[in-house]
Design a protein that fits this description.
Layout: E1 2-7, H1 11-27, H2 33-46, E2 48-50, E3 53-54, E4 56-57, H3 61-77, H4 81-84, H5 87-98, E5 100-101, E6 109-110, H6 114-130, H7 135-149, E7 151-153, E8 156-157, E9 159-160, H8 164-180, H9 184-187, H10 190-201, E10 203-206, H11 231-234
Antiparallel strand pairs: 1-2, 1-10, 2-3, 4-5, 6-7, 7-8, 9-10
Helix pairs in contact: 1-2, 2-3, 3-5, 5-6, 6-7, 7-8, 8-10
Length: 254
Amino acid sequence: MYDTLEYRGRWVDIFLNLLLVSVLSILTLGIYAPWGYVRFKRVIVTNTYFRGKPLQFDGTGGQAFVQFLIIAALTAVTLGLYAVLGYASTRLLRWEYAHTILPTGQRLEYRGEALGLFFENFLIWLLTPLTLGLYFFWGWVRRKRYILTHTYVDNRPLDFTGSGGEYLVLALTNGLLTLVTVGIYALLGFATVRALAWETVRTVVPVPVRAPQPMPIHSPVLSAFARPQTPAESAPRPGPPSSSPEGSDVPPTV
């Protein structure tokens, strides 16, 4: 069984949080940026609902700061290749989804490969100029579908049903309303809310069985170089057969 997400956030949530994050990031010379990133991420996730209940996000600013620091260091050491080849984005996606929790208690898990993400980005970089910008909308949808179909819950992948044509109409609508209101429509967050509502309702999530614990601890490998486990590898393995007599509550004697 599958169901879709629903975004219920308001424009004021977007506007006030972006304003706060921007001001604090400027006052702290950028130090607040990881904390602001997590704050904004939590606003979006907690206003996203699955079957009538909100999702949760338990990442912290300190954790995001460490991730940004590692990404910056590896990007510098590799002369930018770590970011260009998709390893930085993959690392951040694994961290984000590992801290995103469904109402049933399961955490999401991103298993995509860096080079797969690089290929999607490469198509956007290559074909968007050649098509005078038109391919961007189809490329964005392809990239979004790649990310979600490599994101798992209970060893089942998510999916994305949006199309490039729909995304183009959304962009044109937001652009027109922003133009008519002299930028106010986008500045106050209305365009972002419309885009998030369109994106979430086209995100298909397998309905999981309720987790034994409300929020189980799950720490997948965050390194973009590591190969994610396949569903067969991550499935629980049967233990050795018990030597106790059938139906007996008494453990066997040694």
